[in-house]
Amino acid sequence: MVPPIRNALLRRATTCLRQAGPSPIPRLSRNAAIQRLLSTLAVLEQREGKLNMSSLAAVSAAQKLGGTIHGFVAGSNVKAVAEEAAKVEGLEKVIYVDNGAYDKGLPENYAPLLIENIKKGGYTHVFAGHSAFGKNLMPRVAALMDVQQISDITAIEGEDTFVRPIYAGNAILTVQSSDNPKIVTVRGTAFASGAAEGGSASVEEGVDPKAECPTEWVSEDLQKSDRPDLATAERVVSGGRGLKSKEEFDRLMPPLADALNAAIGASRAAVDSGFADNSLQVGQTGKNVAPQLYLCAGISGAIQHLAGMKDSKVIACINKDGDAPIFQVADVGLVGDLFEKVPELTEKLKSA
Fold first, then answer.
1. Distance between CA atoms of 221 and 104, rounded to whole angstroms?
2. What is the DSSP string of 239-294?
3. If you write DSSP's letter for every residue of 98-111 in order, what string do you get?
4. How many CA atoms lie less than 13 Å away from 207 in the CB half-sphere?
5. Is 219 left (phi over 0), alpha (psi -120 to 50) or beta?
6. Could you tell me the domains of the chain?
7. Are 338 and 242 in contact (CB under 8 A)?
8. Rounded to whole angstroms, how far apart are CA atoms 340 and 318?
9. How many helices (DSSP H) and strands (DSSP E) are in the chain?
10. Helix (H, G, I), strand (E, B) or coil at 22
11. pLDDT tens digits, 104-138
12. What pTM, to 2 d.p., does this model score?
């Protein structure tokens, strides 16, 4: 059965092609005509006047879909961010709204803002990263537009068909939707961020409904670090409950991370035990990472943790239990006491 939205696109595409001439309509031409009718709004993130490069995965996903792609960004003094985003390859236009009320991305006022601009542009798809920002905003947008959100996609099979993991990544679900527009969040590790240079999109001011926000932003306490960002780092070292205490975590993991110029991560068990901050959590309820190297110590390999790091290119682990599940997914494994092996590995890396 052909979904209603696809049926409508097919009818419009067929009409356009028939007006061009009486020749038979090949299937490829029909699909190409449908692609030309697609339009995607990629919601971009910014913080303190800087574009969040990981949010460009929404643009990469939109390129897989085809059709026109516009970017959207909002905040105070945001025109400079929009001009930076205009250089992103694949974007045809960047829409910006300059208003400090949207700096923190509170969904109570950001959702009405986004909906006004979706309606104005008549977009068939709206993509955002499956980040804290996207997961906070997009469900409200979907609810207000009376459509169902499609979350955390890892592949696109058509304008109405998407692939997403379920059950902590142990099963893959193919979803077909007839909603219009389609509200989608994109897994950043599945769609590499496109080139930040080479584009020449136009910049246009968007509609600002100035909706009232019942929520007040009070404060935030952020941990600042000179290390690479966990979500986008090429190397990650993670510690688990096997480190036994925060003191041991702080003694062993930072030197190892420094030796590799890596970001630091942690399992949920380590975070719940107070060894590491919640912002470092990797896994189903934490961050998804896909670095070139993922090195973990004292992590047994629960499926919730594997869901957040199994896309890593090379997985290495250190654990004293040779039967731990982590060894089933690791490319390189070392069975041994991490309190001996981690310092030894750190010294060898420094000397190398």
1. 13
2. E-GGG-SHHHHHHHHHHHHHHHT-EEEE-HHHHHTTSS-GGGBBSTTSB----SEE
3. E-GGGTT--HHHHH
4. 13
5. beta
6. 4-18+33-205 (3.40.50.620), 235-351 (3.40.50.1220)
7. yes
8. 10
9. 11, 17
10. coil
11. 999 999 999 999 999 999 999 999 999 989 999 99
12. 0.81
